[in-house]
Amino acid sequence: MFYVRYLFAELRRRWGRTFLTAAGLGVGVALVVATTAFSAGLKDAQDDVLAPLTGVGTDMTVSRPLTIDEDDSGFTDLSEEEREQLEEENGGGRIAFDELGEPGEKFSNDSLVSGSQLSFSSDVIQEVSAISGVEKVTGSLTLTNMHTSGTVPDISEGPQFGVSHGSEGDRGEARELFGNMDIEQFTVAGIDASQTSLLPVSATQVTDGEFLDDSDARAALLSTSYAEEQDLSVGDTIEIGGKKFTIVGLVKHALGAAASDVYVNLTTLQKISDREGRVNTLSVRASSTDDVASVAEAIPQVFSGAEVSTAEDLAEQVQGSLVDASNLVDRLGFVLKIVGLGAAFLIASFLTLSSVAKRVRELGTLKAIGWSQSRVVRQVTAESVAQGLFGGAVGAALAAAGIAAFNATGITLQATVAAAPQTAGGGPGFGPPGAFGLGRASTVSGATDVVLQAPFDLNVVLVAVALALLGGLIAGGAGGLRAARLRPAQALQTVG
Asked: How many CA atoms lie within 13 A of 7 on its CB side?
């Protein structure tokens, strides 16, 4: 007990040194805890933004996009069979104006077109499911509902429009031809309502009404933005492919998500669009994050022409001050922790060495009355470790106060997603000029504000306090070695 009483007596007697050493270590601890908390807060904020896009980080989206060659030579990446399929899916390559009525008569026509999103057999789902590392797969079908109305044009001497890209002259004549028509369009996605965990929308995003029931063939979900634009609400009806659907719910899309205006059951959309057994998007979930890269690489091998988007690809869409701050902390956070702790350890060591130099008489006298070198070293080290413990407590208190103050300020950062560029396209045979950008769900662009909240993690505090104790031990070791070299004669030289 003598050693303990002596230890605390020394800490109280030299309270200035005790305070400075503890304060130095405390600042280092507070810096580590606060920086870690801030980094965790940024990560949590990013996760909140990205969670609706990336699921658990193992989700992928697979599609078969079309590429229009820059030299206007058409879809040279498609086989002859795929070209015929594209032509068939988009109206057979010609608009049958003669079936709409006589030139000059009023007409109204509804059609569901694929545009630049080539559909494929749902058998691909089974092929992708067989890939090692794939947990589950579901398919969806995204089309564009085009409602065309106006006056039947006189095409007796007009141009002919096919599904090839067409020359600039043809596109100009097409625009003139379609100038007397009103064209209303919206995207509609057919989804498997039983696969809620893999869908682009979920029940948690419903703001009004209810989610789709896979047993209700004529139910539809609308995005809140499209419902507001068209002044539609739950209980109203909407025509899709000339068929009436009842709106059962409204959904709000997550920022950056692939969004359609309307959602219906997959089998229903396949049936009314004459695409039974076909989809144009796969949602794939890997068994673990370690399998994502291998699965993404394997999919194009079993599905030629496939384009795979992973959670990492989706995360790269998000920009703004939230991402900038996170990148800055990633680059500087570790350096700040090392510098802070290093400076705290140096301060503690210098103060301990200085203290030993001023205690020559005391320590020399202890050795003169019989204290061994190890006992003197142990005493000095114990004092430094006690100061480290005190410094850890001070640092934890400073960090808690700093985190509380930070959270109280309600600092807001912004996450933004730019709109994806539309696919360029000339006047095809199945619709108005520019229709080759259709049939694909758009990305929800815009910005969202995220309030940062730094979590106070007790585990981080315990680690930081342990580091403070380590700092005290290092400082005590340095001071103890200095004290061990003192001789009793040096104490006698200071007397008088």
From this structure: 18
Confidence of residue 164 (pLDDT cuts 50, 70, 90): very low
Question: Do both 112 and 232 map to the same domain?
Answer: yes
Of 77, 34, 90, nearest to 399 by C-alpha is 34
Q: Among candidates 177, 198, 39, which has minimal Cα distance to 97?
A: 177
In what helix (H) or strand (E) does residue 113 lie, and over which residues does it extend?
strand 106-113
pLDDT at res. 375: 77
Instruction: Tell me, yes or no, whether 74 and 125 share the same domain.
Output: yes
Asked if residue 268 and residue 156 are part of one domain, the reply reads yes
Residue 91 sits at φ, ψ, to 5 deg, of 95, 15
Range of the domain at 251: 65-305
219 close to 267: Cβ distance less than 8 angstroms: no
315 located within any domain: no
For residues 64 and 300, is the Cβ–Cβ distance under 8 A? no
**Is the same domain home to 101 and 69?**
yes
- Nearest partner of 481 among 333, 335, 352, judged by Cα: 352
Measured CA to CA, the distance from residue 25 to residue 207 in angstroms comes to: 51
131 and 207 share one domain = yes
Element (H, E) at 417: strand 412-417
What one-character-per-residue DSSP string does 371-391 give?
Answer: --HHHHHHHHHHHHHHHHHHH
Number of folded domains in the chain?
2
Which letter does DSSP use for residue 317 in this model?
T
Same domain for 200 and 122: yes
| pLDDT one-digit tens code per residue, 424-456 | 333 333 344 344 444 445 554 555 667 778 888
In-domain check, residue 419: no
Q: Strand 446-451's sheet: what is its strand order?
A: 318-319, 412-417, 446-451
Task: Output the six-digit token pair for 65.
Answer: 């996009």
Q: What is the pLDDT of residues 7-39, one digit of tens each?
A: 677 677 777 777 877 787 788 888 888 888 888
Q: What is the dihedral of CA 467, 473, 474, 475, to 10 degrees?
A: 110
Residues 6 and 125 in one domain: no
Phi and psi at residue 215, to the nearest 5°: -90, -10
Rounded Cα distance between 45 and 322, Å, is 8
